[in-house]
From TrEMBL:
It comes from the Bacteria. It comes from Gellertiella hungarica. SUPFAM superfamilies: GAF domain-like, Nucleotide cyclase. Its EC number is 2.7.7.65. One of its GO terms (biological process) is cell adhesion involved in single-species biofilm formation. This is diguanylate cyclase. One of its GO terms (cellular component) is plasma membrane. One of its GO terms (molecular function) is diguanylate cyclase activity. Residues 188-317 form the GGDEF domain. Pfam families: GAF, GGDEF. It is an enzyme of class 2 (transferase).
Amino acid sequence: MTPNTPFETVRTRIIGGQGDTDIDALTVLATAVTGKPYALVSVLDGPIRWSKAECGISVPPAPRELSFCSACVEAGEILIVDDAASDPRFASLPAVSGRAGIRFYAGLPLHVKVGNIEFDATLCVLDSAPGRLEEGQLDHLKRLGALLRFLLIAKLAAATDHVTGLWNKRTFDETMKAMLAVSRRTGTAVHLCLLDVDHFKTINDSYGHDSGDRVLQSLATLLTSACPADSVLCRLGGDEFAVLYATGGRDAATEFFRKLPSKLQYRLHEGPVVSVTAGHAYFTEDMAGAAPLFKAADMALYEAKRRQRGTSCSFRDLAA
């Protein structure tokens, strides 16, 4: 699925992207232990079902409600359909009535959650003939499902920050490059906002590192609530956060980031009100890549700190 928004870019690559040899191998094993010709690892994240791994069959992305996997996730337990063509719940699905002609389906639902990021997935085997699974085959499939869930969690954990649950620095770097490639192709404006917690060292020194972690976690929660659902939220390290956002316009997003610090104030127990300072920039055609965009946002952040902490500054204002 070609990414068109930052949300799709990061989630498609990390959650639903294909080409993972470990997960590909599980689909091959699933066909071997069940004797069925086809196997899929499907991801259901939002309104779309897409294949993360395939063996013996290629299934394009489709609305989740038009899939066996959606019913499997809703059931919350293994779903076995001996003959889909004679089952009124599934007979009209494109996979059954179309060229693939799927008749047999057995799927395991998997829920994956790391920090603030969660999604549903399934491991399933299919056949173009009616069928069933023996008890031993079903046990093997369940074991593969447990291994798949472990792999999905481990790979998601490697892309997220363990304190806040937001995306980490490595994911930020990869995502910004991908977003800028989309921007050059489509003309979509990419915005970057860098945020620092004001006087964070003083908070750690005065109240302890546990309190410092709670500040970071609270800021992550406030950011998630305040920012658009399709923005990409990252912790870069220490007290540094970043928001990536793609939109068709510039003025509305610039104004949003100008007001963002006022939405992120947080009182630490009986202590001080914690504030953040922000710097914002958007990608322009004269920028050679990610580094100039990051530098522009960083310059705006530095200027905001110089003027008044707890506020925001846009690079556009500096360049005016």
